[in-house]
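RECORD TYPE: inverse folding
INPUT: structure tokens
STRUCTURE:
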């Protein structure tokens, strides 16, 4: 493969100008091949509260214009270590969740091929299920590192099995999850019952609750996460509402008392050296954002995820 093509040169075209691709990276059609792809799945009809995450992919792209090629926190050059490209958005039927899930599965399978790593920008958390099905085809039961205020292991809403509150229960039922190595991080807020926590644990998810951050130093939490994941292939699912509403107002199901951007970015950096094989970034809803606060946080989450990918993709 030839040398990777990186972002548009900001000394030639100012960062507020030019095409709106993620981090001003080339489009997939404009490179000979790519090791890692950022693509959008604008689907939000699985939400139970505020809609709007369908506008997430382009909001994250627009908010990613300030990203630069060198990541000093990891001494990494995420866009030079491998070819990263923007694969655009998947066309998904907003009126039929079953069809949407099948379209997302087909799209992820086709894009990832045999070796590419996908970073999928949603869209609501419903999309995690089809993405995990495709990961399972390649890796078998996968260690899921799930950042969220919510468990998302509920059963049904109004009898509907596929929503943004149920992806990880469905994934666990389908045998997609590595029961010994999966974990929620950032859980907080009121629940429907005490059973919610017990059932989530039975589905294979240990949990770092937000209140744990008040009692343990960040390094201890990062060690807990790394120990839980071990050397397994890891899929990272980031629901932006894991951040406190002060750091991510632009989301559909906000809960008070969340993580700061600095805490989340530091934890993601702590994944460096693990076998991260794919990720998604969901629930960015720009209608509730201000001055791109949420979009910028999400863009930086994506940047740190790309920085910890094993060089050369999965
Ligand atoms: N934002 C996500 N992914 N899930 C929210 C579920 C909220 C609820 O069941 O009340
Ligand atoms: Zn959530
Ligand atoms: Zn979620």
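DESIGNED SEQUENCE:
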């Amino acid at each position: 493969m030839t040398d990777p093509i990186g972002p548009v040169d900001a000394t030639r075209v100012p960062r507020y100008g030019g095409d709106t691709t993620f981090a001003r990276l080339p489009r997939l059609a404009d490179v000979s091949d790519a090791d890692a792809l950022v693509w959008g799945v604008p689907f939000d009809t699985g939400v139970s509260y505020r809609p709007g995450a369908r506008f997430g992919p382009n909001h994250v792209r627009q908010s990613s214009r300030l990203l630069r090629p060198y990541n000093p926190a990891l001494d990494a050059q995420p866009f030079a270590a491998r070819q990263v490209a923007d694969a655009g958005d998947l066309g998904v039927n907003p009126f039929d969740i079953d069809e949407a899930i099948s379209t997302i599965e087909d799209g992820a399978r086709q894009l990832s091929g045999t070796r590419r790593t996908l970073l999928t920008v949603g869209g609501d958390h419903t999309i995690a299920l089809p993405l995990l099905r495709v990961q399972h085809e390649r890796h078998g039961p996968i260690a899921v590192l799930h950042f969220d205020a919510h468990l998302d292991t509920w059963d049904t809403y109004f009898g509907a099995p596929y929503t943004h509150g149920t992806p990880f229960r469905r994934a666990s039922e389908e045998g997609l999850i590595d029961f010994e190595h999966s974990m929620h991080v950032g859980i907080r807020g009121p629940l429907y019952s005490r059973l919610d926590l017990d059932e989530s644990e039975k589905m294979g998810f240990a949990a770092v609750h937000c209140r744990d951050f008040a009692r343990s130093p960040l390094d201890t939490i990062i060690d807990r996460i790394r120990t839980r994941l071990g050397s397994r292939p890891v899929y990272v699912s980031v629901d932006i509402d894991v951040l406190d509403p002060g750091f991510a107002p632009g989301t559909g199901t906000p809960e008070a008392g969340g993580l700061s951007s600095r805490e989340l970015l530091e934890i993601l950096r702590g994944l460096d050296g693990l076998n991260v094989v794919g990720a998604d970034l969901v629930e960015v809803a720009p209608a509730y954002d201000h001055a791109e606060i949420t979009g910028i946080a999400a863009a930086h989450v994506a940047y740190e995820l790309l920085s910890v990918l094993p060089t050369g993709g999965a």
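NOTES: Residues 148-150, 239, 241, 253, 283 surround zinc ion (ligand 2) (CB under 6 Å).
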